[in-house]
Amino acid sequence: MNVVVVESPAKAKTINKYLGPGYKVLASFGHVRDLPAKDGSVLPDQDFEMLWEVDGASQKRMKDIADAVKSSDSLFLATDPDREGEAISWHVLDLLNKKRVLNGKPVKRVVFNAITKKAVLDAMADPRDIDVPLVDAYLARRALDYLVGFNLSPVLWRKLPGARSAGRVQSVALRLVCDRESEIERFISEEYWNLSAILKTPRGDEFEARLVSADGKRLPPRAVSNGEDAGRLKALLEGASYLVDTVEAKPVKRNPSPPFTTSTLQQAASSKLGFSASRTMQVAQKLYEGVDIGGETVGLITYMRTDGVQMAPEAIDASRRAIANQFGDRYLPEKPRFYSTKAKNAQEAHEAIRPTDFDRVPDRIRKFLDDDQLRLYDLIWKRGIASQMASAEIERTTVEILADNGGKMAGLRAVGSVIRFDGFIAAYTDQKEDGEQSDDSEEGGRLPEINARENLAKQKINSTQHFTEPPPRYSEASLIKKMEELGIGRPSTYAATLATLRDRDYVTIDKRKLLPQAKGRLVTAFLESFFTKYVEYDFTADLEEKLDRISAGELNWKDVLRDFWSDFFAQIEDTKELRVTNVLDALNEALAPLVFPKREDGSDPRICQVCGTGNLSLKLGKYGAFVGCSNYPECNYTRQLSSEGGAEAESSGLNEPKALGADPVTGEELTLRSGRFGPYIQRGDGKEAKRASLPKGWKPEEIDYEKAMALISLPRDIGKHPESGKMISSGIGRYGPFLLHDGSYANLESVEDVFTVGLNRAVTVLAEKQNKAGGRARGGTPTALKDLGEHPDGGGLITVRDGKYGPYVNWGKVNATLPKGTDPQAITVEEALALIVAKAGKSGGTTKKAPAKAKAAAAGAKATKTTAKPKAAAKKPAAKTAAKKKSAE
Predict the structure, then answer these.
(1) Residue among 834, 814, 837, 810 at smallest CA distance from 282
(2) Can you tell me whether residue 863 is helix, strand or coil?
(3) CA angle, residues 584, 587, 592, in degrees to nearest 5
(4) Between the CA of residue 845 and those of 31, 260, 781, 805, 832, what are the distances in Å?
């Protein structure tokens, strides 16, 4: 019997079927050990020795693997085909060696890029040894990330209260977002005018031509910069006669794009499907690991963490056969297409992302996939097959026109394109039957018949005013594209990096755009001021290149760590003498547009408008930064530092309380004020005064007496429940607008609903929460949001439920809360199992199934020193508080 170790239980089941009874396939559930989240896990003074920790859940998994290996003939390590997968295999092997269960048995590493029977059997027939340079690169990366996170983050906590963490890649990605915001703030809009003419041919057809030259000079884009010039040129065109100078029809070929890489898939899924990077990877993981297609679990796509753009030769051959069968021979180029990436530091060690079988047309397997899986698979299939199809043939016609107004000349141009042969574009439209070719179609507008040297009739002259716009904020997709261009991060880290920025509240997503929050901008400004080198794009990219050279066997990984640590440690030591006043002075200058926004009256934005003499400056409090007056405590003016730039609070008349009227019951004055955490309503004075923050979307300038009374009077009694006879009320809490009845809460859709919802609607919302969303009745059990099937170890169903504190995974008596931001409907069996194992390990096990094993899991984490290779741990300058926090890369 041979033991095969893979990463996930879903893969284990599928691969076991492929290999047959002579093999036992076990899952490691990802990494089996990691660096403890505390100071001292990487020891630079001991040649970067790394101390690893095996948690309770992983101990159980490793025991199962070790027990199986004892009675086996050989061991195959079949984890994912990338740096992380190689590292997991190395960790498993190192632990088995420590347990002394191998006893000379052969150990081989196998990799397959797709989970299909052929791919798995081919890999098993061609094993290799563990790739030591690839493991070295993993160790170097892990050590670097740890050393940065667990040494730089404590500096932030000491010098910049409210900051959460810093990371080697995370901080550079955040800088990109913040730098773009600074560009937008500095941007000065410029006026420009576009002029065009609607002209008619002698045959009565109309078309539009734009002005491109005047007075013998070419007019580049935005050359007409004011209304006076635009008016003069419009007058010239109004009185001109028009003659066609030249007509040029030029054939143009458009070539297809290469198959997807990780980053291009995330970009396409974002723009076409609206998926976040993490959602894209979740769905792709499922397509890779396998879907039940008519009773057989089959991997539908190749491995989805890659920066390679080339398909394997057999895949190219299969795609060409599919093109000939599904589209016709004309759509098949004479030779296969070959691609190379332009991304900086791309390794291209793996295939591009493609379908495992091009004959599995999306429509044919629609019934086996959920909506998101189908949409993503459709995207991958079309891109993959289009990459090997013939070029599209386009005829682009350019018409040059002369305008003559009494000797004053101007030039206009009209451009139109027609697709003469759609080529690869056919893959993105309706598929052809029996090789049917497509008709001509338009691309960018078809021009009517226009002949050289013929006169045209003027119909209308258009003159439109425009203003230049600032560069757009990054979306997740465009940020990933930029990181890839700069060589920052790797395919496996993009989604995790973006998730970390959101989780740390450094950025928020508004209409799919990344908006840096004040906290994120403060961290970036601090790092740019005092750790400039370590957030430079080139420095980070050069470090990534060194990691790639380590994986290629060209550099020694510890030499790279030594070079990095000597300078980094010195920089950390220098900050010990850094005073908070130095930090605030630097931040005041770096973030001047955010901290001191311009005032409408033109007064100095750095002078306090309340007392008139104090200087405004950033202040650091327990909960983060705010703007305050230097005359404190005589002047207690403060203003929240908001992501909108702070100008809103200052220009809205909130520098001092604004009286709104008196409460008719208490007689106390209602005032609109601005505090450290934003604008709010206050009733009365003193410590006992009641306060209510303005809900999201409520602007201070729109607050009147009625709105203030409604807000300060919350919670609002709606009426008694017809069944329980108990009051239903509405209010606004930490998690937004809600209904409350008999201790049970239900979310409302909007803030306005809090003030308008009636009794009937409230009863309905509460019932829907209880019956459909898994709401808990008194003494009852939440109903399942999603059924994931039987646990592979038995013991009952795994379900996703919604509880008082949010959605969670349930199996028997084990309840594991879903990570923040996880879609309950998107959770997979593998993710649920990992959560259950982690929860059981922390709690010591609560199921009836195996109390002894659970006890072992509860024994906790066991730290072991590496003898073959080290991993990242902290250094002396990291504060002890770092032990309680984990920096995210």
Answers:
(1) 834
(2) strand
(3) 125
(4) 21, 43, 21, 21, 16
- Alpha-carbon distance 499 to 479, whole Å? 13
Q: Could you report the per-residue pLDDT of 761-788, keeping only the tens digit for each?
A: 898 888 888 765 444 443 445 556 677 7
The dihedral through the CA atoms of 748, 749, 752, 753 has a sign that is: negative
Cα separation, 115 vs 387, whole angstroms: 22
pLDDT of residue 318 exceeding 80? yes
The greatest distance separating any two alpha carbons of the chain, rounded to the nearest whole angstrom, comes to 100
197: tokens are 């003419």
777 compared with 691, residue with greater pLDDT: 691
Contacts of 530 (CB under 8 A, 6+ apart): 571, 575, 578, 583, 586
- 632 in catalytic set: no
Whole-angstrom distance, CA of residue 597 vs CA of residue 628: 14
Distances (CA, A) of 219 to 101, 216, 224, 412, 413: 78, 10, 8, 10, 12
Q: How confident is the model at residue 848 (pLDDT cuts 50, 70, 90)?
A: very low
Residues 882 and 154: their CA atoms lie apart, in Å, by 6
**Does 2-130 match 262-390 in CATH topology?**
no
Q: What is the pLDDT of residue 781?
A: 53
The domain spans of the chain are 2-130, 139-187+476-581, 191-255+393-467, 262-390, 716-771, 784-852
Return the pLDDT at 333. 95
Q: What is the pLDDT of residue 642?
A: 60
Which residue, chain included where needed, has tokens 């006893």?
103
In eight-state DSSP terms, residue 351 is P
Distance CA 856, CA 484 (A): 44
Give me the numbers of helices (H) and strands (E) for the chain, helices first please.
24, 34
Smallest Cα–Cα separation from 114: which of 280, 315, 340, 319?
315
Q: What would the two tokens of residue 221 be?
A: 């884009």
Instruction: Look up the pTM and report it.
Output: 0.70
- Give me 743's structure tokens: 């201790």
CA 375 – CA 766 distance, rounded (Å): 34
Strand partners, 797: 790
State the architecture of 139-187+476-581 in CATH terms: Orthogonal Bundle (1.10)
**Bridge-partner residues for 717, per DSSP?**
729
- Amino acid identity, residue 24? K
- Direct distance between the N- and C-terminal alpha carbons of the chain, in angstroms, rounded to an integer: 40
**CA-CA distance, 122 to 130, in Å (whole number)?**
18
Contact present, 793 and 787 (Cβ < 8 Å): no
**C-alpha span between 290 and 727 (Å, rounded):** 51
- Backbone phi, then psi, for 690, in 5-degree steps? -85, 140
Burial class of residue 507, CB neighbours in 10 A (0-12, 13-18, 19+): buried
Using only C-alpha atoms, the chain has a radius of gyration, in whole angstroms, of 32
Helix (H, G, I), strand (E, B), or coil: what is residue 509? strand
If you average pLDDT over each of 441-455, 494-508, 677-691, which comes out highest?
494-508
For 2-130, the fitting CATH number among 3.10.20.70, 3.50.50.60, 3.40.50.140, 3.30.565.10 is 3.40.50.140
Kindly state the tokens that stand for 460.
């209308």
CATH topology of domain 262-390: Topoisomerase I; domain 4 (1.10.290)
Taking Cα atoms as reference points, which of 384, 383, 395 lies closest to residue 422? 395
Active-site annotation holder among 303, 331, 680, 808: 303
For residue 805, CA distances in Å to 332, 793, 802, 815 come to 56, 28, 8, 12
727-761 b/e with 16+ CB inside 10 Å = b? ebbbebeeeebbbbbeeebbebeebebbbebeeee
State the Cα–Cα distance between residues 426 and 438, nearest whole angstrom. Answer: 8
Q: Which CATH number fits domain 191-255+393-467: 3.30.43.10, 3.90.79.20, 2.70.20.10, 1.10.10.60?
A: 2.70.20.10
Residue found under tokens 């809103």: 648
Q: Which residue in this structure is represented by tokens 């160790």?
A: 139
